[in-house]
Amino acid sequence: MEEILAFFYTYKESIFVIALAIFLGFEVISNVPSVLHTPLMSGANAISGVIIIGGIILLGHAEISFSVNFILGILAVFFGTLNVVGGFAVTDRMLDMFKKKNKK
Amino acid sequence: MLYQTLNGETFTLSAAILELTYLIAAIFFVIGLKLLSHPETAKKGNIWAASGMILAMISTLFLHEGDDGESIALTNGIVVVLTILVAAVLGWIIARRVKMTAMPQLVSFFNATGGIASGLVALMEYPGTTNTGILIVTLLGLTIGSISFSGSLIAYGKLDGKVGDIRASAMKYVNIFLLIIVVGMIVYLSSVPTDTAGALIYGLFVISLLYGVLFVMPIGGADMPVVISLLNSFTGIAAAMAGFIYGNQAMILGGIFVGAAGSILTILMCKAMNRSLANVIVGAFGGGAAAAQSEGGTIKEISVSDAAILMNYSQRVVITPGYGLAVAKAQHVVREMDQMLEENGVEVKYAIHPVAGRMPGHMNVLLAEAEVPYDKLVKMEDINSQLPNTDVVLVIGANDTVNPAAKEDPGSPIYGMPIVEANEAKNVIVMKRGMGKGYSGIENKLFLQDQTRMLFGNAKDSVQKIIEEIKNM
After folding, report:
1. Using a CB-CB distance cutoff of 8 angstroms, which residues of chain B are in contact with residue A47?
2. Are the Cβ atoms of A87 and B114 closer than 8 angstroms?
3. What is each CA distance from B100 to B97, B140, B261, in whole angstroms?
4. pLDDT tens digits for range B104-113
5. B29 and B124 co-located in one domain
6. Cβ distance of B252 and A46 shorter than 8 Å
7. Threshold 0.90, pTM exceeds
8. CA distances from residue A9 to A3, A5, A12, B128, B181 in whole angstroms, order as listed
9. Tens-place pLDDT, residues B421-432
10. What residue numbers bound the domain in which B89 lies?
11. CB A99: neighbour CB atoms within 10 A?
């Protein structure tokens, strides 16, 4: 119990962020037309690539050697980037399909 | 290091600027997703979110300082940038080259990459962690990220037709058993020092991967959108867990925000099919008791030329596409037929059911690709009132979304799901490969009705033949 309280106290700002972000996420998505479900999912997927920041921090401070950790670090940055770039590019392409309709 | 002291706080300038850019990035994510949820602003929203991400990546690279106060060394920076460049080019090429029809798979694939990135970061940060809270968060990040990775890959395989459905009743128990092991391992590992855990941490990694596979395996292919949305929300949560490790608010906010948005989206998708999430996961569709009831009526076939004549001399034709259209890649020939009919004075519209195909919006995307004008695509709710005055409803590869049982038969597993009321039209032509049942595995009374005619065969071939017939008229 004490440990949980200590954890809460140390990370209180982050925990506030979490609590508010949950409500924000619910709020922003409600009342979305069903046609947009797929692009929205794809866009959200791209944002979940924020893990790339963790990858950059990890690899940025890692010792450069042919160790397992270094290779795993490269993989983390590689896959994180794939998620971010691929995710936003696919979303953009899907949304092009919607733009066409407006012109006509 | 240039340390500043102001009002008793000691900090470096670069650390302060870094936190500021994270705040801006987080705001960009929220604005981006907000804009993405409206059709007119969606494209802008995507750019906002992407800009936030680029900002956060660049500032981390230049401004981040490790626990020892050192910034990222030049050689490390070069390795990071090179890795990012290679992955970015690859990601861009994949995203641009893949066919429009394969979009759903692609989202799943990219979600898998995010999941494994989270899993790997947690796996590497695990050694040497002493704070129990951070230890739990790290283990959760590892587990959730890995499940998201392997689960998304299976979902990708299913949508791509590479992986079939495996349903065994014993699987439910295997999954529960695995889940208990995973939870047990997290509890144990969070209570022992990291250097005594040994290979157990890799054990958790492997079992989580296995659980992801077995979790998605029994879920039917048509439910994959819901599963991908759920796994997408998992990836967000895993990223947020990693954010805790670094005390990084942009990662925490971005991850949790996506996690929350993803779970709401999952629920919305379930609602559009009038099913509960639990129902999707357990896969209660098909094989149910309600499947029996095959009462009166017979199947009546129609020849290609009769179908062509019927449509050509109609005033109004409504095309109702389903997954079969996507499978047969018939959107271009359908568009061609539509143009010919319009030239002959027939009004042609498309009835779009919200869950037709394998993704919400799937039909819109396919038909847009064939350059069908957007105003011809009519939402289900709007077209239903017009159907009684419609001469022909042409159903192409749709089944459950036009099944009147959803309205009439309270015993049916799809009862309550909104449908395109094709049964109200004067004539119905159904293009189908064979007499197979829809995904829900139930009979469709529409096919037995007096005004319904069946045209069996590949939708693309059938439409092609109809075009030939209309030409010769």
Report:
1. 29, 32-33, 49, 53, 236, 254, 257-258
2. yes
3. 9, 35, 25
4. 889 999 999 9
5. no
6. no
7. no
8. 10, 6, 5, 22, 30
9. 888 888 899 988
10. 1-97
11. 14
Q: Show Cβ contacts of residue B438 under 8 Å, excluding neighbours closer than 6 positions.
A: B399, B400, B403, B444
Does residue A66 belong to the interface with chain B, where contact is any CB pair within 8 Å? no
Does the structure's ipTM exceed the value 0.90? yes
Contact predicate A97/B100, CB 8 Å: yes
A89 touches chain B (CB under 8 A): yes
Q: Do B361 and A81 touch (CB under 8 A)?
A: no
Say how far apart CA A36 and CA A34 lie, in whole Å.
5
Is the domain of B112 the same as that of B130?
yes
**Min CA distance, B68 vs chain A (Å)?**
10
Nearest CB to A90 within list B36, B80, B110? B110
Give the end of a domain, one of B47, B79, B97. Answer: B97
Both B222 and B343 in one domain: the answer is no
Q: Which two tokens stand for residue A13?
A: 């700002």
Residues of chain B below pLDDT 70: 1-2, 167-168, 221-222, 274, 282-297, 358, 413, 435-442
Other C-beta atoms closer than 10 Å to the C-beta of B78 total 11
Q: What is the number of structural domains in chain B? A: 3
Domain boundary residue, one of B49, B72, B97: B97
